[in-house]
């Protein structure tokens, strides 16, 4: 899968980190999302899907390769 984030939309709510901490982090300075892995293993699919659903800004996109 391919994951992308739009930092212009991110509001720093941190729900993505809560859902999938191996894939997402938050910038220590501005609190915005930091994508740690744009091609996570399939085992992370449910967690990333949760992050997409929980992100209040619609800032996360998940695509099949
Ligand atoms: S859940 Fe969405 S708005 Fe919140 S930090 Fe993650 S990408 Fe940004």
Low-confidence stretches: none
Overall number of structural domains: 1
- The portion of residues forming beta strands comes to 15-25%
- Quaternary structure: single chain
- Name of the CATH first level: Alpha Beta
Number of strands: 4
Helix and strand succession? EHEEHE
Helix content class: 10-25%
Bound ligand species: iron/sulfur cluster
- Could you name the CATH topology? Alpha-Beta Plaits
Question: How would a crystallographer describe the biggest sheet?
Answer: 2 strands, antiparallel
What's the alpha carbon Rg, rounded to whole Å?
10 Å
Number of separate helices: 2
End-to-end separation: 5 Å
Structural class: alpha+beta
Strand order of the largest sheet: 1-4
Nearest-integer average pLDDT: 97
From the spread of the alpha carbons, the general shape counts as globular
CATH architecture classification name: 2-Layer Sandwich
């Amino acid at each position: 899968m391919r994951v992308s984030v739009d930092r212009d939309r991110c509001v720093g709510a941190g729900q993505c980190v809560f859902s999938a901490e191996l894939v997402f982090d938050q910038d220590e300075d501005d609190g915005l999302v930091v994508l740690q892995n744009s091609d996570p293993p399939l085992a992370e699919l449910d967690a990333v899907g949760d992050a997409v659903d929980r992100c209040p800004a619609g800032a996360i996109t998940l695509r099949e390769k």
